[in-house]
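Subject: for your reference before the review

Hello V.,

The reviewers asked for a structural picture of the protein, and I figured it would be easier to keep everything in one thread rather than splitting it across files. Below is the amino acid sequence we used in the manuscript, unchanged from the supplementary table.
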Amino acid sequence: MITQNTFGKVQGQDVIRYTVENQHQTRMSVLNFAGILEEFSVVDDDERINLLLSSDQIEGFTGNPFNINRVIGRTAGRIKNGNWNQAGKQHTVPVNDGPNSLHGGPEGIGNQFFDVTVDADANQIVLTYLAQNVDDGFPGDLKVKVVYTLTETDEIKIDFEGQQEGEAGLFNPTVHAYFNLGNAEATNLMQHDLMINAEQHLETDQEKCPTGVFTDNAGTPFDLKFRHDLGTILPEMHASTDEQGFDDVFVVPADFNQIAASVSDRASGRQVDIYSDRNAIVAFTASQMDNQVRYLNRGTSKPWMAVALEAQMLPDTPNHSDFGDVSIDAGASTDYHIMYKYHKN
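And here is what came back from the structure prediction:
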């Protein structure tokens, strides 16, 4: 069964929340605005726990720069100076992060309303949106389809499909999901472990754009493949990095059969494993989040309240040939897949 209810308004348009529940009482809720994953909750010790940083009001997701739980596209991450060369043609797109284009630019998919259909038999919520060149400035028009599926084994599967029209373009979407698996009173990540299946991360410049250099993680706080305790690691990052936490791109195997990242809460034993068919996980601990983000389920907003884990291709890929390929030809379609698997240790 899939239910729906009104969840406020954005620019005068109704936001609708769609909710599906499986036989274990695990729930998934998705909004038609920005494809926001509003709820991934489980019942544990007779208490319902939302595993995501979230809000029960749309104002908790708008009016701040943190893209909380939004679908991101056409491209996740930054494109240096908003330009790249593709098949011999130079493209320039609108910028929204200093001189760079971030998360699809100012009119990216994460700022749009989707059309929604549901399939109750399959526990699916299906979102579609047509990204047009005239609106977002990216080359060609892109039909975007996002299918959220809640399985009976407590997994959320997210399937992206892009169909390009007009001229070749780019497609590298993600969901900007923030996780905090603690009990309702847990307001930070100090009892969390984070594993990222990576031996390298990307060096970035002062604007957080990749330089093209792959940096080894061994022997540093970035070595999350072997060191996991955020209660120890985040204070180290606070003392040693400008970001005072993670805002970094980790290079992971582009293999859906391997775990790309795992986050777990030591106090409760709750864990979410993330699977992806692309080669990057961006970890972001929102270290600059102040107390101005309203109505969050974890109380007054502050740094290290949750960790965003964004499964995608390495960012700024069109400017770095060894990062992968996120191009999509006119008349072609491309699909990508992410899965969040819940279990308890």
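For the response letter, the relevant points are probably these. The first strand starts at residue 2 and ends at 10. The two ends are 29 Å apart (CA to CA).

Happy to draft the paragraph if you're swamped.

O.
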